[in-house]
Amino acid sequence: MNISAGQPAPDFxxxxxxxxxVTLSELKGxxxxxxxxxxxxxxxxxxxxxxxxxxxxxxEGLHARVFGISVDSVYTxxxxxxxxxxxxxxxxxFNKEVSTAYGSIYPTFAFGMQGVSKRSAxxxxxxxxxxxxxxxxxxxxxxxxxxxxxxxxxLA
Length: 156
Hints:
Layout: E1 13-16, E2 21-23, E3 32-36, H1 43-54, H2 56-61, E4 65-70, H3 74-84, E5 90-92, H4 97-101, E6 105-106, E7 116-117, E8 120-124, E9 130-135, H5 145-155
Parallel strand pairs: 3-4, 4-5
Antiparallel strand pairs: 1-2, 1-5, 3-8, 6-7, 8-9
């Protein structure tokens, strides 16, 4: 299923790198940025998430919470977060349910891997409605962070 702006964001509960459960509906009242990424420790994913790390104060200035989501295990995400000094939670969608619900999953990825998250970005407003949606078919590209920022600024 593809999710587009104006639709309610599919609710989910996932386990973060620190083994704490994060439930989207419990975050209502503040904007949320969901960044799905294919795999920890790959070059484009590392560059994308480190860019967010380096600009996190901007997101926080708009009271937005940022979450990275991949099908990697909690343990892999914890190590990746530590090594890259990431300052926002990484959520494990190991069972691929959330990536599927957001239309952000590759049936087949590199090296024959199946069920890897597509690189994508969603801005969810304080009421749980998607205000921006971008799903990339090419894992070598990154989301348009200027459009993400514009969507967040439009919520302020």
